[in-house]
Amino acid sequence: DIDTCHLQAEPTNEIRLAVKRLAQQEGWTFYDIKEHVGFLRNMQIRLCTTGELMVNVVIAENDKKKINKLMEFLVKEFPSITTLLYTINTKWNDSIFDLTPVVYKGKGFVIETLTEKNSGKTFQFKIGPTSFFQTNTKQAEKLYQITHDFAECNGTQTVYDLYCGTGSIGIFLSKQVKNLVGVELIDAAIEDAKENAKNNRISNTEFFCAQTEDFISNIERLFQSGEYVRIIDAKNQDVLFNGQPLRAKVVGQISSINIDPNNRGLTYKVGDPVIVYGGLNTPDGYGAIAEVSETT
Fold it and tell me: 119-153, pLDDT tens digit by residue?
Protein backbone atom coordinates (compact mmCIF):
# COMPACT_ATOMS: atom_id res chain seq x y z
CA ASP A 1 0.00 0.00 0.00
CA ILE A 2 1.12 3.55 -0.76
CA ASP A 3 0.01 6.06 1.85
CA THR A 4 1.69 9.11 0.37
CA CYS A 5 2.68 10.02 -3.17
CA HIS A 6 4.86 13.14 -3.17
CA LEU A 7 4.44 13.95 -6.87
CA GLN A 8 1.23 15.92 -6.41
CA ALA A 9 -0.10 18.20 -3.71
CA GLU A 10 -3.14 17.44 -1.60
CA PRO A 11 -5.94 16.56 -1.80
CA THR A 12 -4.73 13.95 -4.33
CA ASN A 13 -3.60 11.45 -1.68
CA GLU A 14 -6.70 12.11 0.39
CA ILE A 15 -8.97 11.37 -2.58
CA ARG A 16 -7.15 8.17 -3.50
CA LEU A 17 -7.12 6.82 0.05
CA ALA A 18 -10.76 7.79 0.65
CA VAL A 19 -11.86 5.86 -2.44
CA LYS A 20 -9.82 2.89 -1.27
CA ARG A 21 -11.46 2.94 2.17
CA LEU A 22 -14.94 3.20 0.64
CA ALA A 23 -14.23 0.27 -1.64
CA GLN A 24 -13.04 -1.88 1.25
CA GLN A 25 -16.06 -0.88 3.31
CA GLU A 26 -18.48 -1.73 0.49
CA GLY A 27 -16.68 -4.91 -0.52
CA TRP A 28 -15.92 -3.62 -4.02
CA THR A 29 -13.21 -5.42 -5.92
CA PHE A 30 -10.09 -3.90 -7.41
CA TYR A 31 -9.20 -4.63 -11.02
CA ASP A 32 -6.92 -7.62 -11.63
CA ILE A 33 -4.90 -7.00 -14.81
CA LYS A 34 -4.18 -10.73 -15.22
CA GLU A 35 -7.67 -12.09 -14.63
CA HIS A 36 -9.40 -9.06 -16.18
CA VAL A 37 -11.96 -8.81 -13.39
CA GLY A 38 -12.79 -6.22 -10.75
CA PHE A 39 -14.76 -2.99 -10.32
CA LEU A 40 -12.28 -0.17 -9.59
CA ARG A 41 -9.59 0.11 -12.23
CA ASN A 42 -7.64 3.35 -11.82
CA MET A 43 -8.05 7.07 -11.30
CA GLN A 44 -6.78 10.23 -12.99
CA ILE A 45 -6.31 13.35 -10.90
CA ARG A 46 -5.15 16.68 -12.32
CA LEU A 47 -4.59 19.58 -9.95
CA CYS A 48 -3.99 22.83 -11.85
CA THR A 49 -2.09 25.92 -10.77
CA THR A 50 -5.40 27.76 -11.28
CA GLY A 51 -6.88 25.75 -8.40
CA GLU A 52 -9.13 23.68 -10.64
CA LEU A 53 -9.21 19.96 -9.84
CA MET A 54 -10.30 17.20 -12.22
CA VAL A 55 -10.91 13.60 -11.10
CA ASN A 56 -11.71 10.82 -13.57
CA VAL A 57 -12.42 7.41 -12.03
CA VAL A 58 -11.89 4.54 -14.46
CA ILE A 59 -14.19 1.60 -13.79
CA ALA A 60 -14.13 -1.89 -15.28
CA GLU A 61 -17.76 -2.82 -14.57
CA ASN A 62 -20.84 -0.92 -15.74
CA ASP A 63 -22.59 -1.14 -12.38
CA LYS A 64 -24.72 2.02 -12.11
CA LYS A 65 -25.57 1.54 -8.45
CA LYS A 66 -21.93 1.32 -7.40
CA ILE A 67 -20.91 4.14 -9.73
CA ASN A 68 -23.56 6.52 -8.39
CA LYS A 69 -22.62 5.75 -4.80
CA LEU A 70 -18.96 6.39 -5.54
CA MET A 71 -19.68 9.64 -7.39
CA GLU A 72 -21.95 10.96 -4.63
CA PHE A 73 -19.31 10.07 -2.05
CA LEU A 74 -16.66 12.09 -3.89
CA VAL A 75 -18.99 15.06 -4.39
CA LYS A 76 -19.83 15.15 -0.69
CA GLU A 77 -16.38 14.47 0.75
CA PHE A 78 -14.37 16.60 -1.70
CA PRO A 79 -16.21 19.77 -2.72
CA SER A 80 -12.91 21.12 -4.09
CA ILE A 81 -13.32 18.82 -7.13
CA THR A 82 -14.38 21.16 -9.92
CA THR A 83 -14.83 18.44 -12.55
CA LEU A 84 -15.75 14.86 -11.69
CA LEU A 85 -16.02 12.16 -14.33
CA TYR A 86 -16.08 8.40 -14.66
CA THR A 87 -15.01 6.24 -17.57
CA ILE A 88 -16.10 2.65 -18.10
CA ASN A 89 -13.22 0.63 -19.53
CA THR A 90 -13.84 -3.07 -20.12
CA LYS A 91 -10.91 -3.44 -22.53
CA TRP A 92 -7.74 -5.37 -21.86
CA ASN A 93 -5.60 -2.22 -22.03
CA ASP A 94 -5.72 0.94 -19.92
CA SER A 95 -5.92 3.52 -22.70
CA ILE A 96 -9.05 5.66 -22.63
CA PHE A 97 -8.53 7.76 -25.75
CA ASP A 98 -11.13 5.74 -27.63
CA LEU A 99 -13.63 5.87 -24.75
CA THR A 100 -16.11 8.53 -23.64
CA PRO A 101 -15.72 9.84 -20.09
CA VAL A 102 -19.06 10.69 -18.44
CA VAL A 103 -19.29 14.06 -16.70
CA TYR A 104 -20.92 13.70 -13.27
CA LYS A 105 -20.13 17.15 -11.92
CA GLY A 106 -18.69 20.31 -13.44
CA LYS A 107 -17.85 21.35 -16.97
CA GLY A 108 -15.90 18.24 -18.01
CA PHE A 109 -12.51 19.95 -18.26
CA VAL A 110 -10.11 22.17 -16.35
CA ILE A 111 -8.20 25.34 -17.23
CA GLU A 112 -4.42 25.55 -16.78
CA THR A 113 -2.11 28.49 -17.50
CA LEU A 114 1.45 28.95 -18.74
CA THR A 115 3.31 32.29 -18.72
CA GLU A 116 6.01 33.30 -21.21
CA LYS A 117 8.44 35.30 -19.08
CA ASN A 118 9.89 37.62 -21.74
CA SER A 119 6.57 39.09 -22.79
CA GLY A 120 4.69 38.33 -19.57
CA LYS A 121 1.94 36.83 -21.71
CA THR A 122 -0.15 34.22 -19.89
CA PHE A 123 -1.80 31.55 -22.02
CA GLN A 124 -4.84 29.57 -20.91
CA PHE A 125 -5.35 25.92 -21.87
CA LYS A 126 -8.45 23.77 -21.74
CA ILE A 127 -7.58 20.23 -20.66
CA GLY A 128 -10.02 17.32 -20.88
CA PRO A 129 -9.64 13.80 -19.47
CA THR A 130 -8.34 12.40 -22.77
CA SER A 131 -6.18 15.38 -23.78
CA PHE A 132 -2.41 15.28 -23.36
CA PHE A 133 -0.88 18.09 -21.31
CA GLN A 134 2.36 18.03 -19.32
CA THR A 135 1.67 16.76 -15.80
CA ASN A 136 4.15 19.10 -14.10
CA THR A 137 2.95 22.55 -15.12
CA LYS A 138 5.75 24.60 -13.56
CA GLN A 139 8.45 22.39 -15.06
CA ALA A 140 6.67 22.45 -18.42
CA GLU A 141 6.67 26.23 -18.28
CA LYS A 142 10.47 26.21 -17.84
CA LEU A 143 10.90 23.65 -20.64
CA TYR A 144 8.74 25.66 -23.02
CA GLN A 145 10.65 28.83 -22.13
CA ILE A 146 13.94 27.13 -23.05
CA THR A 147 12.41 25.99 -26.34
CA HIS A 148 11.09 29.52 -26.92
CA ASP A 149 14.52 31.09 -26.31
CA PHE A 150 16.49 28.53 -28.33
CA ALA A 151 14.17 28.84 -31.33
CA GLU A 152 14.99 32.54 -31.75
CA CYS A 153 12.05 33.03 -34.07
CA ASN A 154 11.61 36.50 -35.50
CA GLY A 155 8.06 36.42 -36.84
CA THR A 156 8.83 35.02 -40.29
CA GLN A 157 8.78 31.29 -39.51
CA THR A 158 6.18 28.56 -39.60
CA VAL A 159 6.25 26.18 -36.62
CA TYR A 160 5.22 22.57 -37.20
CA ASP A 161 4.09 21.23 -33.82
CA LEU A 162 3.97 17.46 -34.35
CA TYR A 163 2.13 15.31 -31.79
CA CYS A 164 0.85 18.66 -30.50
CA GLY A 165 -1.70 17.44 -27.93
CA THR A 166 -3.69 20.48 -26.80
CA GLY A 167 -1.29 22.74 -28.70
CA SER A 168 0.59 23.97 -25.65
CA ILE A 169 4.13 24.23 -27.09
CA GLY A 170 3.04 25.78 -30.37
CA ILE A 171 0.70 28.26 -28.71
CA PHE A 172 3.48 29.19 -26.28
CA LEU A 173 5.61 30.13 -29.34
CA SER A 174 2.80 31.61 -31.41
CA LYS A 175 3.50 35.26 -30.66
CA GLN A 176 6.97 35.10 -32.25
CA VAL A 177 6.17 33.11 -35.41
CA LYS A 178 4.28 33.76 -38.62
CA ASN A 179 2.22 30.57 -38.64
CA LEU A 180 1.60 27.56 -36.40
CA VAL A 181 0.61 24.14 -37.74
CA GLY A 182 -0.29 21.44 -35.19
CA VAL A 183 -0.81 17.73 -35.86
CA GLU A 184 -2.30 15.24 -33.40
CA LEU A 185 -4.09 11.88 -33.73
CA ILE A 186 -6.54 12.32 -30.85
CA ASP A 187 -9.59 14.23 -32.03
CA ALA A 188 -10.53 15.54 -28.57
CA ALA A 189 -7.05 17.04 -28.16
CA ILE A 190 -7.27 18.78 -31.54
CA GLU A 191 -10.63 20.27 -30.61
CA ASP A 192 -9.09 21.52 -27.36
CA ALA A 193 -6.12 22.93 -29.30
CA LYS A 194 -8.43 24.87 -31.63
CA GLU A 195 -10.40 26.19 -28.68
CA ASN A 196 -7.19 27.07 -26.83
CA ALA A 197 -5.98 29.10 -29.80
CA LYS A 198 -9.32 30.88 -30.03
CA ASN A 199 -9.49 31.60 -26.29
CA ASN A 200 -5.97 33.03 -26.40
CA ARG A 201 -6.91 35.18 -29.41
CA ILE A 202 -4.36 33.52 -31.66
CA SER A 203 -5.37 33.51 -35.33
CA ASN A 204 -2.20 32.31 -37.07
CA THR A 205 -2.90 28.63 -36.33
CA GLU A 206 -4.03 25.48 -38.11
CA PHE A 207 -4.62 22.19 -36.29
CA PHE A 208 -5.08 18.84 -38.04
CA CYS A 209 -6.33 15.54 -36.66
CA ALA A 210 -4.15 12.97 -38.42
CA GLN A 211 -1.40 10.43 -38.08
CA THR A 212 1.81 12.43 -38.16
CA GLU A 213 3.34 9.99 -40.66
CA ASP A 214 0.39 10.47 -43.00
CA PHE A 215 0.42 14.22 -42.58
CA ILE A 216 4.09 14.65 -43.52
CA SER A 217 4.11 11.95 -46.20
CA ASN A 218 3.74 14.83 -48.63
CA ILE A 219 7.14 16.20 -47.76
CA GLU A 220 6.57 19.32 -49.82
CA ARG A 221 4.25 20.59 -47.09
CA LEU A 222 7.12 20.64 -44.61
CA PHE A 223 9.60 22.07 -47.10
CA GLN A 224 7.62 25.10 -48.18
CA SER A 225 9.41 28.26 -49.22
CA GLY A 226 10.73 30.26 -46.29
CA GLU A 227 12.06 29.21 -42.93
CA TYR A 228 10.36 26.89 -40.47
CA VAL A 229 11.14 25.47 -37.06
CA ARG A 230 10.34 21.94 -36.01
CA ILE A 231 9.97 21.43 -32.26
CA ILE A 232 11.77 18.31 -31.08
CA ASP A 233 12.51 17.04 -27.59
CA ALA A 234 15.45 14.81 -26.66
CA LYS A 235 15.52 12.26 -23.87
CA ASN A 236 18.13 9.63 -23.30
CA GLN A 237 19.61 10.55 -26.68
CA ASP A 238 16.53 9.38 -28.56
CA VAL A 239 15.21 11.78 -31.18
CA LEU A 240 11.70 12.79 -30.15
CA PHE A 241 8.90 14.91 -31.56
CA ASN A 242 7.28 16.80 -28.67
CA GLY A 243 8.35 14.10 -26.26
CA GLN A 244 7.32 11.15 -28.43
CA PRO A 245 9.85 9.02 -30.34
CA LEU A 246 10.08 9.45 -34.08
CA ARG A 247 8.40 6.53 -35.80
CA ALA A 248 10.11 4.51 -38.48
CA LYS A 249 8.15 6.05 -41.34
CA VAL A 250 9.04 9.55 -40.21
CA VAL A 251 12.72 8.71 -39.92
CA GLY A 252 12.59 7.20 -43.39
CA GLN A 253 11.48 10.51 -44.83
CA ILE A 254 14.52 12.34 -43.47
CA SER A 255 17.78 11.59 -45.22
CA SER A 256 20.16 12.63 -42.46
CA ILE A 257 20.38 14.15 -39.00
CA ASN A 258 23.81 15.53 -38.20
CA ILE A 259 24.03 16.80 -34.63
CA ASP A 260 26.81 19.01 -33.31
CA PRO A 261 26.62 18.46 -29.51
CA ASN A 262 29.19 21.23 -28.92
CA ASN A 263 27.00 23.93 -30.43
CA ARG A 264 25.62 25.93 -27.53
CA GLY A 265 23.95 28.55 -29.68
CA LEU A 266 21.43 28.09 -32.46
CA THR A 267 22.07 29.93 -35.71
CA TYR A 268 20.36 29.53 -39.04
CA LYS A 269 19.48 31.44 -42.16
CA VAL A 270 16.19 31.76 -44.03
CA GLY A 271 15.43 28.53 -45.82
CA ASP A 272 17.37 26.29 -43.43
CA PRO A 273 15.35 23.59 -41.66
CA VAL A 274 16.08 23.73 -37.93
CA ILE A 275 15.58 21.29 -35.09
CA VAL A 276 15.41 22.71 -31.59
CA TYR A 277 16.37 20.42 -28.75
CA GLY A 278 14.08 21.43 -25.89
CA GLY A 279 14.25 18.29 -23.76
CA LEU A 280 15.35 18.27 -20.15
CA ASN A 281 17.88 15.49 -20.78
CA THR A 282 19.71 16.62 -23.91
CA PRO A 283 23.05 14.88 -24.51
CA ASP A 284 25.10 17.88 -23.39
CA GLY A 285 22.51 19.98 -21.60
CA TYR A 286 22.56 22.64 -24.29
CA GLY A 287 20.93 23.21 -27.64
CA ALA A 288 22.12 21.25 -30.63
CA ILE A 289 21.66 22.05 -34.31
CA ALA A 290 20.54 19.34 -36.69
CA GLU A 291 20.61 19.55 -40.45
CA VAL A 292 17.68 17.77 -42.08
CA SER A 293 17.68 16.97 -45.77
CA GLU A 294 14.63 16.12 -47.85
CA THR A 295 14.48 12.68 -49.41
CA THR A 296 13.53 12.35 -53.06
Answer: 889 999 999 998 888 888 999 899 889 888 887 88
Average pLDDT of every residue of the chain: 76
* E runs forming strands in the chain: 40-47, 53-59, 83-88, 102-105, 110-116, 121-127, 158-162, 179-184, 205-209, 228-235, 238-241, 244-245, 254-260, 273-277, 289-294
Please give the average per-residue pLDDT across 55-67, as a whole number. 97
The whole-angstrom separation of Cα 83 and Cα 56 is: 8
Q: Which of 91, 118, 99 is nearest to 31 (CA)?
A: 91
Largest distance between two CA atoms of the chain:
66
Separation of CA 202 from chain center: 19
pLDDT at 271 over 50: no
Residue 223 DSSP label: T
Burial of residue 79, with CB atoms counted within 10 A of its CB: 0-12 exposed, 13-18 middle, 19 or more buried: exposed
Q: Can you list the positions of beta strands (E) in 136-227?
A: 158-162, 179-184, 205-209
Q: How many CB atoms lie within 10 A of CB 282?
A: 18
The end-to-end CA distance of the chain, in Å, is: 56
Report how far residue 256's alpha carbon sits from residue 236's, in angstroms, rounded to the nearest whole number.
Answer: 19
Name the amino acid, one letter, at 293.
Answer: S
Highest mean pLDDT among 183-192, 194-203, 217-226, 276-285: 194-203
